[in-house]
Amino acid sequence: MKRYSLGSTPLVDTFINSFNNRFSPEFVIYPVSGITMDRNNHFTAVVEYFELDTREERFFSRASEMCPASIALASVLQLPIYFIFYIKGSSNFLIYNYNDNTHFTKSIIDTPETHSDFAKWWMTLKGTIQTKKFYKKAEYSSWKINEVLDASGFKWGGDLDGVLLDSNNNVQAIIEFRKSTYKTVAEYDPADYYFGTKYRKGDYLTWYPLTHLASEIRRKLILVTLSMKQNDKCGIAIVEGSDRDGLHYANGIKPSQNIFDFDYAYEDIVAIINEFVASINEREHDDVIKEDVATEIVQESQLTQDSIEETSIVKEPVIEASKEKEQPEIIQEETLIEEQPSVGKEDKPRKSLWQKILNIFKKK
Known about the structure:
Blueprint: E1 2-3, H1 10-23, E2 27-32, E3 34-37, E4 43-52, H2 68-77, E5 81-87, E6 93-99, E7 103-106, H3 115-125, H4 137-141, H5 144-151, E8 160-166, E9 171-180, H6 204-217, E10 220-227, E11 230-243, E12 246-249, E13 259-261, H7 262-337, H8 353-363
Parallel strand pairs: 4-5, 9-10
Antiparallel strand pairs: 1-4, 2-8, 3-4, 5-6, 6-7, 8-9, 10-11, 11-12, 11-13
């Protein structure tokens, strides 16, 4: 059973295998055959492709064991993951949807009647234009799927050189390998080719899906540069983004300024991951503290408000009660003053006790 891996080279394979042998199972790098994106820059699916001999047909379900990074990535992005199989000597592809990380389910179009039907299905997943040059023409032509897609004017593309997983199969970083044939690691910087040169087109369109993906899953995009002139050294940089102004490295440090022997490079990648994980944990811890403080403020505010409301409720009956106590006193005072009922008509003015006393003295 042969897994599609167009972007792989011996130098990249050596780096990945050495890294995995050293750090597995704590950290492992896996390639992903493809992640498709539509014209609106929305990711649509994770795809894996296998070619099998006739005698291998009954083993195709083992394909999922070879693609933990694809399954993890599809889970994070909440995308469907399709396994496409071609059995040599047959005329059609088999398309399976891997559901719930547990089993394969045949897709509705599991057996496209023609290669044209397959290309139409592929078009529903991939709306972007393939711009990156294919350097390994011999290997490229050997894959049946490339033959079918080429006939309809499509390319596969969208492969990921490496997705770094931890021991729990959580995605920790995206790894992108770039290789120079004629320059040393110290001379090579992929940013120099971002807008193109006199002899080649710019590859800015190949960077956007990578930086967009890293942003979507909130993980680091680690660039590893290699050289055919130096098979024991590499450059490492963290790509923070890409836009019309170019490729942006963290802290402005280019890979050509950060060169390691392979052994030390592995350590540097792990250090980047550990530092990033630590920063995430610290940020999450700070967020928890902020959330707790905010909750306490809300609770204190609510208690203060409740206290104010309780105070106003208690005071009001006291005021009313005092009024009720004062009222009988007023009535009693008026009773003393109005000792004698009025004489005559009800509207005749009443004489107070003091007026009567004054009249007595006047008479004397």
